[in-house]
Each structure stands twice: as C-alpha cells, then as structure tokens.
Design a protein that fits this description.
248 residues, alpha+beta, eleven-stranded mixed beta sheet, globular
Length: 248
C-alpha cells in the first residue's frame, strides 16, 4: 500500500498555480492554453486565509455564501483507481476546483490539496467525486470536479457544483448599505455516452434535453418527460430520464 502514498499526497500550490494536463485548458471558469502538469510540495491555507486574500483584493471584509460545498471537513473513503487508499477528511472548495484534505480532523494538522489526477476519487455519500474534463453548454472545455450520479450501460450522468464569486460594493454614504462579497452556488449536470471520450452539459429544459439525441430517440425522450410530468431541473426526475435512455 505504501507505494501509492507518494503520488496520492502530492499537492499543488494553491491560488498561484493550477496544474493542468498538456493540451487542456485552465481549470474552472478560466480559459486559455494548457500549462505544465508539474506538481510541487506545498500546503494550502485554511478558509480564513482565503477570505483574507479576497478581502484585500476587494477591500471588503464581509462575505455571503461560501466557496465550499461543505465548510467542515468530512470523512470519506479515497480511491486511486480501484485501490482503496483509506479514509481521509476532505472539504471541497468548488470555487477553486480543489479538494482540501487531511488525514485527521485535528485543527493543528496542515491542510493539503489532492492532486488533480483523474484516477483519484473521493466517495461522497457513496458517489465518486473525481477530476474530469468536460464541455459546458457554451462550448467551453473545462477541467473540474464531477460527482457521478448515474453509472449505467449506455449513458452516465454527472453533477457539478459551480461556485461563482461576485465582488461586493462599499457603502457610498450613510444611507446606502454596503454589499458583501458573495459566493453563489449553481448546480449543473453533464452526461457521457459509453465509448465516447466526451462529457457534455445537459441543458435543463425538456426540449433541449430531447435535442441531445437523434430521432426516433429524440421524440421518445420528449414524450417520456411529458407523459410522466417530469421536471428535468429536479435531479431525481433527470435521473429517471437517463434511466429511461439506458433502457432503450
């Protein structure tokens, strides 16, 4: 087992270097050409350090929302490929597309970040969260973390929490309240056809979901959604749509 620990614990310099695979674009909302995938030994700051950095950047100390999907560290199994690496405490910073990790939940333990390696997965509630390359509805190719919500024979379905940062505004006078910096969470869904090396965003409208497929499947999907009164914006209903597709 020890032979896996070195590649597993390798970490990235937070906020200043986003390690990428050659030929891929920048992580998350950024765009541009690929950069080196070299990794360096470093630790990252805690949540307060990140808020302090953004406070200095914006000149505003108040924040609404969070860059994290879970503010506290939660224990979960971690795998490298099919190899169970044991349980670790993780916290997912969806704004930075970074999984922060500790071996224990002790406050004095320094926080590191998981290598952005597609072979690594954190089992969150029994569902794998792993690094992936995907294409959003605007046609942008991005790198980030996806959670598998359906793994089936024909189509896989993934979920992404996309966190956007909006800079606040200082109070212009005593009659106008200051606006805090804000982290807003948005949920996106992606699908992948088995045997196709491409993950695409699912548009959350009935007609647009149906248009992802050719006839006669296009009409069948549209009718299935209508006949069963499904709302594709609801995760449970969207899963039903893709379970139907996998049954065809």
């Amino acid at each position: 087992m020890k032979k896996f620990i070195v590649p597993f614990i390798l970490i990235l310099t937070a906020h200043s270097l986003s390690a990428q695979y050659a030929g891929q674009v920048a992580v998350g909302n950024a765009s541009g050409s690929g950069v080196s995938n070299a990794m360096v030994s470093s630790v990252i700051g805690d949540m307060n350090d990140q808020y302090e950095r953004l406070s200095k950047q914006t000149g505003i100390d108040d924040f609404a929302g969070s860059p994290y999907t879970n503010d506290k560290f939660v224990q979960a199994p971690v795998y490298y490929g099919d190899e169970n690496m044991g349980s670790y405490y993780y916290r997912y910073n969806a704004y930075n597309e970074e999984i922060e990790i500790k071996k224990t939940n002790l406050e004095e333990e320094k926080i590191t970040a998981l290598t952005k390696d597609k072979s690594i997965k954190v089992m969150v509630g029994g569902r794998p969260l792993s690094f992936a390359t995907f294409i959003d509805k605007k046609g942008n190719t991005l790198n980030g973390y996806l959670t598998t919500v359906l793994d089936s024979e024909k189509y896989d379905l993934y979920k992404r929490v996309n966190v956007k940062f909006t800079e606040g505004q200082k109070a212009q006078n005593s009659f106008v309240k200051a606006v805090p910096n804000r982290f807003s969470h948005f949920v996106e869904y992606y699908y992948q056809e088995k045997g196709v090396n491409r993950i695409d965003e699912v548009p959350l409208k009935t007609n647009q979901v149906a248009k992802l497929f050719n006839e006669p499947l296009k009409s069948e999907v549209k009718d299935y959604i209508k006949d069963n009164n499904l709302d594709v914006k609801d995760e449970a209903d969207l899963i039903k749509v893709f379970e139907y597709l996998n049954s065809k």
